[in-house]
Structures are given as structure tokens and as C-alpha cells.
Write a structure and sequence with these properties.
Order of helices and strands: EEEHEEEEEEEEE
Helix content: under 10%
Largest sheet: 12 strands, antiparallel
Number of helices: 1
Radius of gyration: 17 Å
Structural class: mainly beta
Shape: elongated
Length: 210
């Protein structure tokens, strides 16, 4: 069972089951626990090939046992997401933990910028269970519908779920309007029906200072 203690610490109660978590994110535990280092990008040979192609560097550990583990990372805000057979797309740096039964992978979601030819590879979680994602500041969950598509600054994007189509648009970004941007500017556009998680603080992106 996933539960929050405050907004920046995740407690996971286990009775012989397991959880996957970002390597190094465990801050305490009680009871009897066993730890195993995993690799990001997915399970099996396909996951290994995907990681080699994408340069995916996320390292994940599996914790299994009886007791409670507490997880946190750099005092980031933690958000719980319940999956009911659907798929969650999350930036690797924003992943904290997930039920071990959720299938993990890496997917290519498009080109970040035409000039650099950079790609956007996103961690995926799929199945039934809980996941915990992090954000720099409290995350905001925005609804996308057929009538109301959503455009997001890539530095503020955290995750999305639902039946959404994702595309990249080059042009003016929000910070460029105020003369603060540089390099190649782009935005992420979501269409369809689903949810998008954004954070109130922008990270640096590989497609330029946006």
C-alpha cells in the first residue's frame, strides 16, 4: 500500500510483495527487506536493446519483504497515481516508485527539435497498481479533452496518461515571449482525452534553453 507522510515522503507497506523504486531513494525501513538492483528501460532482452538505443540511464531497485519502506528524493513533492490497466508516461527523472507488478518500459514519443534531431524517450508504467511520481513543487493535473487540447512547456512536463496524442511544435515558447529563452524553441501539444501532470518549476531540456 502506498501512502504519503507529508508531501515529500512515500511510505510503502509490504506483506511479502515487492516495489520498484528509484535507486538510492529509500530513506528508512523497518521489518525484513531484501534489495536487488534492476535497470531502467524495461524487462528482458527488449528492455536491454531499448536502453542501448535510447541511452536510458534510470537505475531502479526492487525492494521485497515484510514491513514498511520510506522513499524520498531531494525533497521533491510526491504524487500518487492509480493505474487501472492503463499506461502512464513519465519523465525518468520524475519517477520514484511503482508496484512491482506494473510493467515498465521506455518509449520514443517524438523529436524534441528538428535542428538537433534530439529524441524524447519516456518511461512507461502499465497495468493495475500504484505509482509515485515526483515534481519540483506541487504538481498540477490538467484535463485534456477533444474540445480543449493542451500545450505544455517541455521543462514543466512531468507525466501523462489516457488516450492522448502527443506532438511537438517549434516556435515561440512562453519564456521566449519575455526575452528569457534561447536556442531552438518548442512546445508539447496534447490532443485526445486524458490527464497531464505539470510542475511549477522548469527543468533544463536538451533541445535548448526553453
Amino acid at each position: 500500500m502506498f501512502r504519503l507522510q507529508g508531501s515529500k515522503v512515500l511510505a510503502v507497506d509490504m506483506t511479502g510483495d515487492a516495489v520498484k523504486a528509484k535507486n538510492g531513494s529509500m530513506v528508512a525501513y523497518d521489518g525484513e527487506m531484501a534489495f536487488k538492483k534492476l535497470s531502467g528501460g524495461g524487462e528482458g532482452i527488449r528492455g536491454m536493446v531499448t536502453r542501448r538505443l535510447t541511452g536510458e540511464q534510470m537505475t531502479v531497485m526492487e525492494v521485497k519483504g515484510h514491513g514498511t519502506c520510506w522513499f524520498a528524493d531531494r525533497a521533491s513533492e510526491i504524487n500518487l497515481v492509480a493505474l487501472q490497466g492503463d499506461k502512464l508516461y513519465v519523465e525518468s527523472s520524475n519517477f520514484l516508485a511503482a508496484d512491482a507488478g506494473l510493467r515498465t518500459g521506455t518509449t520514443f514519443t517524438g523529436a524534441r527539435g528538428a535542428a538537433q534531431g534530439n529524441g524524447l524517450f519516456t518511461t512507461t508504467l502499465e497495468g493495475h497498481g500504484q505509482a509515485a511520481i515526483m515534481s519540483d513543487g506541487p504538481a498540477v493535473v490538467l484535463r485534456v479533452s477533444a474540445q480543449y487540447p493542451l500545450t505544455v512547456d517541455p521543462g514543466a512536463y512531468v507525466a501523462h496518461q489516457g488516450n492522448l496524442r502527443q506532438s511537438f511544435q517549434s516556435g515561440v515558447t512562453f519564456r521566449t515571449l519575455y526575452g528569457e529563452g534561447g536556442g531552438e524553441a518548442f512546445q508539447i501539444r496534447f490532443e485526445g482525452d486524458g490527464l497531464v501532470y505539470v510542475q511549477p518549476s522548469e527543468r533544463n531540456t536538451i533541445a535548448g534553453d526553453v
